[in-house]
């Protein structure tokens, strides 16, 4: 996702995310926003934990 993309969400990722990390954060955030159940899979070393934390943190930050 391009830094200048107007649809880019402020996930608070501590550095420039790789495309797979941006895709994962968007998918997690959108699933949470829709209240849907989702299962995500990504290879080892792709930043799943940090991507999840950033996406969920943004979602809950907007809820409360």
UniProtKB/TrEMBL annotation:
Signal peptide from the UniProt entry: none
Domain called Helicase ATP-binding: residue spans: 7-64
GO biological process, one term: establishment of sister chromatid cohesion
GO cellular component: nucleus
Nucleotide-binding among keywords: yes
Family matches, as InterPro entries: DinG/Rad3-like, Helic_SF1/SF2_ATP-bd_DinG/Rad3, P-loop_NTPase
Gene Ontology MF, one: hydrolase activity
Coiled-coil ranges per UniProt: none
UniProt keyword Hydrolase, yes or no: yes
UniProt KW keywords: ATP-binding, Hydrolase, Nucleotide-binding
Protein name according to UniProt: Helicase ATP-binding domain-containing protein
The species this protein was found in: Meloidogyne enterolobii (Root-knot nematode worm)
């Amino acid at each position: 996702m391009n830094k200048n993309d107007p649809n880019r969400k402020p996930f608070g990722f501590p550095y420039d995310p790789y495309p797979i990390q941006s895709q994962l954060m968007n998918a997690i955030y959108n699933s949470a926003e829709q209240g849907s159940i989702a299962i995500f899979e990504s290879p080892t070393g792709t930043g799943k934990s940090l991507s999840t934390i950033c996406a969920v943190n943004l979602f809950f930050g907007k809820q409360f």
